[in-house]
């Protein structure tokens, strides 16, 4: 298998312009759903990712690896690292585009081991949009925003209606997500999305 990357995005795209009401650079994004494994504060064994809006089309996330995240002794499990990137990339899509979307495809490159106790500084960016398809990518820097890149990821998110979550998931949990979403917007002094459940 070659390390040479395929062209990205893989199809012609339009620029993914952040929504006019997207949170401004410097905004701490908080938890999007309390039970989310990636960011939720009610997910005890979760990753507890924290994210901040950056300049341009970027979201910065931080994830500290604990002993609960091991695969090999003393090292982060690759699947959990992929989860951290799914969350960071999803946060960029959801918060900057303000459209509900799910991961269609997620590709990860593991370049350096990520030890327990280290913090990954993940910079996720919007790369382009083609209809319902939103292309995003991210680099995870070890222990500092300008640290060596340990993991990179690229993903396709597909925009869905909110009924995706009530049809396929748990309608009560969707209500909880909607409440959390409203609370986050109120705390940041922002108005609600155009798309309602
Ligand atoms: C997730 C919470 C969002 C809630 C929003 C509310 C507030 C949020 C605010 C902020 C959010 C903050 C953080 C979010 C953090 C984390 C997010 C985690 C996200 C996940 O963890 S989410 C779970 C894993 N995810 C799934 O559970 C998806 C299962 N799946 C499906 O539900 C369907 O599969 C679906 C819907 C993807 C598509 O189905 P569909 O029928 O609607 O549409 P269709 O198949 O036509 O695809 C349309 C076009 O995408 C192309 N396409 C699709 N898949 C492709 C692939 N794999 N490779 C290449 N191209 C692909 C097609 O080729 C076509 O392209 P074209 O239009 O050019 O023909």
Automatic annotation (TrEMBL):
Annotated GO MF terms: hydrolase activity
Location within or outside the cell: Cell projection, Ruffle membrane; Cytoplasm; Membrane
Residue ranges of every copy of the Thioesterase domain listed in the record: 74-140
Record membrane topology: Peripheral membrane protein
Record-linked Pfam families: 4HBT
Catalytic activity: octanoyl-CoA + H2O = octanoate + CoA + H(+); (5Z,8Z,11Z,14Z)-eicosatetraenoyl-CoA + H2O = (5Z,8Z,11Z,14Z)-eicosatetraenoate + CoA + H(+); hexadecanoyl-CoA + H2O = hexadecanoate + CoA + H(+); (9Z)-octadecenoyl-CoA + H2O = (9Z)-octadecenoate + CoA + H(+)
EC code: 3.1.2.2
Principal location class: membrane
PANTHER family cross-referenced by the UniProt entry: ACYL-COENZYME A THIOESTERASE THEM4
Recorded family membership: Belongs to the THEM4/THEM5 thioesterase family.
Protein name (database record): Acyl-coenzyme A thioesterase THEM4
Gene source species: Amycolatopsis melonis
Lineage: Bacteria, Bacillati, Actinomycetota, Actinomycetes, Pseudonocardiales
